[in-house]
């Protein structure tokens, strides 16, 4: 029969094991606190030149300064934003591939019969960044200065007015389709691969009308390259387009055509990484200089907790499902 281990020898062995384990704890803690250790990829699922890159590049620069690593903007337009969004869904959940996207993120379940990801299951909402406003604008050649004149013009064209958006099924598409439906204006949707290409087509007279995000559309309006018909805010603007009415003033009420931008990570991203990015973005959004920049491009800083952002996304998924049913859009 083997000789039992003595009490003193057992105590010495146990002490050595505990000391070894304790020695490992600081190292593990240091590794967790070292994020990020290499550059971060910030995927934008829209074409360059749109409102999201107007926001994304300055935000990435501020995040680079805060995190001590480059935050590289990677625009991946295509397939109605599902191309870039899918890249992030399939990326390792380590905090080094993030998604900066718009409210169209929540339209996917309603407009696509088969998505390569689940917007509520496969992503971790980190932080909402900004709220946006838009300008309902037409090409200067369109003989309309209000919705009634736009409706009259639409009835002279087969298929009605041609209206542009950043892609089929996105919030820009659903918003203007819902708006035109409520205003009784017939139209044909012409999708583009992002807000920038869509606004370029509007300036070229290839389409008639568009909800142009104010973040990059306002200079086009002020330069006379586009004619504004309405703004999407609840009240008229206090500067710049003070003479332009709101949609409510033109008889289009009870319609939410403003959107948000926000940052997401793949499902399974460590909570401490989510918390770090959330804290840094909230801090950036509180900086007076950055807030002034956002306001200069007609964006409203948001910020907040991940759990609250998750509730917003879920609420929007349900809202867009109702909009899609109302306008009769068939899932693709």
Describe the structure.
The chain is of the alpha/beta class. It folds into two domains: 40-132 and 258-327, D-Maltodextrin-Binding Protein, domain 2, CATH 3.40.190.150; 134-250, D-Maltodextrin-Binding Protein, domain 2 (3-Layer(aba) Sandwich), CATH 3.40.190. The chain contains eleven helices and eleven strands. It has helices at 7-33, 51-67, 82-89, 108-111, 147-154, 171-183, 195-203, 214-222, 271-286, 288-296, 306-327, and strands at residues 40-44, 71-75, 97-102, 123-132, 134-138, 161-165, 187-191, 209-213, 227-231, 259-266, 299-301. A six-stranded mixed beta sheet has the order 2-1-3-10-4-11, with helices on both faces. Strands 7-6-8-5-9 form a five-stranded mixed beta sheet. Helix 6 (171-183) links the parallel strand 6 and strand 7. Helix 2 (51-67) crosses helix 9 and helix 6 packs across helix 11 (306-327). The chain is globular, with a radius of gyration of 25 Å. Residues 1-32 have low confidence and may be disordered.
What are the defining features of this structure?
disordered N terminus, 5-stranded mixed beta sheet, D-Maltodextrin-Binding Protein, domain 2, 332 residues, 6-stranded mixed beta sheet, single chain, alpha/beta, globular, 2 domains, 11 strands
What is the strand tally?
Answer: 11
Spatial gap, N to C terminus: 75 Å
Radius of gyration: 25 Å
Fraction of residues in β-strands: 15-25%
Average of per-residue pLDDT values = 88
